[in-house]
Structure formats: C-alpha cells, structure tokens
Amino acid sequence: MDLHIQSFSLRNFRNYRSFEMDDVDPLTMFIGPNATGKSNVLEAIQLVTSATTFRGAKSREMIRWGCERADVKAHIVSDTRDLETSMRLTESGRNIAVNGKRKHGQDVLGILPSVMFSPEDMQLVTGAHGFRKDALDALGSQLSRTHRVLRRDYLKIVKHKNSLMKNGIEGSLLDSVNDMLVTSGAHLYAYRAALFDNLAVRIARAYSEISSSGETLDMRYVPSWEDADLYSDRMRDAAHFFEVEECSNRMRRSLFNRHDEESRRGRALVGPHADKLFFYLDGRNATLYGSQGQRRSIALSWKIAEIGLIEDVLGLKPILLLDDVASELDESRREALIGLLHHDIQTFITTTDMGAFEKSIANGARVVDMHSIHADGRD
C-alpha cells in the first residue's frame, strides 16, 4: 500500500485542546457548520506533511490561546516504511522530528507530499502575481530540497538589499549584495522556470478536460527584466526560458538600467521575487476578462496538475486536502474534482453540506461530525 497517514493527533492546536484519529480511512469527511474547526484539522495535516500551511500562519498564531506550545503528530506508513512525524510549535518557532530524530523543515518535504485546495486558491487566478509564485515555489519545495533552499537563500538576500536601500546605503556594499542576488536569483529562476514549463502543460491539459467551452488556456512566465506586454506578445506561440548565464546577464543589465528607480523607491525591483505569471484564454488575460466559471476551472486545473506532477516526479501519491471547495464549484467542476477521489489518493474533505457529494462518495467515507466535538476536541 502507498504511503499514507494511519493516525494523527493535535494538542493545543488552534481551537483544539485535544483531537485524535486512529485507523484513518482513505477518505475522511469532516462535516459541520462554519467556525467548528474543520479547516484547522486540515491545516494541521498540511503542516506535518509539507511543513507549511495554506494560511501562511506563524507558529504562535496556531497555538491555542493561553498555552505555551502546540503539538501535531502523524503516523505515516506503507508496506515498507513506518514513520512517526511530529511538530512542536512554540513562540520561538517550530521543532520537527521524524522517528524521534530532530529534523529541519526541508528534511520532511517530499516524505508524504500534500495538495491543498481551498476557496482561497481562487487567488491563483484573481490574486496578485505573488500568490501564484508562492504556490509554484511551495510545489517546487515539495519536489526538490534544492528549490526550497534556493528560494530561502534568495529571499534573505532580497530582504538584506531592501534594508540597505531603505537606509540609503549604496556603493560597494550594495554592489556586492547585487552580485549575490544575481547568482542566487538566476539559479532560482532556472528551477522555477523548469517547474513552470512542466506544470503549465499539465494545467492546460486538465483545463481542456474540465471546460466544455473549447477555449485554449495558455500560461506565461515573465521575468522581471522583461516588459510584460512586449514579452507576452513576442512569446505568445512558444515557451521561452533563459539559461542561467543568460539570465544572470539580463539581471545585471536590468539592475544597471533600473538603479535610479530602485533608489527612488527604496526596494529591490529586479529578480525572481518580481517575476509575473499570467493566464490567457484564447489570448485574453483570464485574470482581467475570464468569467467566474473559467477562473474556477483554472484554479481546479492547477491542483489537478500538481497531483499528477508530484506522482510523476516523486513516485508518490500525495494526500489531497479539500477545504470546503464543493460549495465553490458547479456540478461539472465538482464531478471533475470527485473524479480524483477514485485514484487511490488519501483524501480529507471539509464540508457544511454532505449533499454536495454523490452518495457513492459519502457512503465510502468515514464521516466525522464536527458539531458533536466538544470544546476540548474530544468526542
């Protein structure tokens, strides 16, 4: 049997003093009204499998009010592996362990990857470019420790540069920071662009299967040194990415050309942190002109593509976490989503309405009534 969660527990996490599940089923549905803590359970599962949360919360924000720490544990097993993973949250940060041995966050990534789909993921289409880049990097971090380390180190350099510029420091010190930014940024760009190229093909394919309107979805990654409109027009019919050396040269040239602008605005404007990702439907910007249904289809297609990519790269089926998304999708898109549940993927669903799912799905699930959970998180 593929790697899966056999049991998990929470202590002093969010609104829970205690919550435990043993002999976890392939499909678990948490049902109940809003504000009963359904999403908190999914957040904890995502935290202990991918070392991040869809809310982007700090450790102290996930600790139950009045407590000093929170604990999340999961027993992850397969026919050949037996892993006890745990994460302790304190005011000062997170302590992670696997089978009792202290680990760094990047060490647990890829052990049991997860894919989260929540109403907030509509921002993949409607939100700022930063939301799409963060989603891309989060996926890359689950697939490759190198991607995670490159992003971490690059963002530290950007933060340092912004601090220097805010304080009006230039000259040789800023030049040396720019050198580091170019070196780190070019490699991050290369990893991110390769991932994007693979993911974009899968998203377009998933969209064509979900959508009945026949339009063509195209995605474009525009680096910060390019004019978005000119670049998109020039590269409309072909994906184009730069090798590390060419990327470095273009970044250096852009840093030189935009030096005065960066000084005036007091922050870094060139590098992967300022890159942009666009969706186009038959050549029209989907963020600006797409219908609500089209945007939902794109967001769902992104998640379907993530699942397939994780399986192909890591040889593992990810855990699927669906946070109240049935209410956001119409019948055809809901059917596409439900189709994933037949692919032997361990799935956790939150919902306020069991009627949003086919009886065959609900009848095969372990249903947890969150309304019956006491304040301390125990039945």
Task: Describe this entry's structure for a reader.
With 379 residues, this protein is α/β, with parallel strands linked by helices. The chain has two domains: 4-113 and 316-372, 3-Layer(aba) Sandwich (Rossmann fold), CATH 3.40.50.300; 123-289, Up-down Bundle (Glutathione S-transferase Yfyf (Class Pi), Chain A, domain 2). Helix content is 44%, strand content 21%. The chain is built from 13 helices and 14 strands. It has helices at residues 38-50, 105-108, 123-126, 129-143, 145-166, 172-210, 228-234, 244-257, 259-265, 286-289, 292-314, 331-339, 359-363, and strands at 4-13, 16-21, 27-31, 69-77, 82-90, 93-98, 101-103, 114-117, 217-222, 276-281, 284-285, 319-323, 347-351, 366-369. The strands form three sheets. The chain has a six-stranded antiparallel sheet with strand order 2-1-4-5-6-7. It has a five-stranded parallel sheet with strand order 8-12-13-3-14, with helices on both faces. A three-stranded antiparallel sheet has the order 9-10-11, with helices on both faces. A hairpin with a 2-residue loop joins strand 5 and strand 6. Helix 6 (172-210) crosses helix 11. The two termini are 30 Å apart.
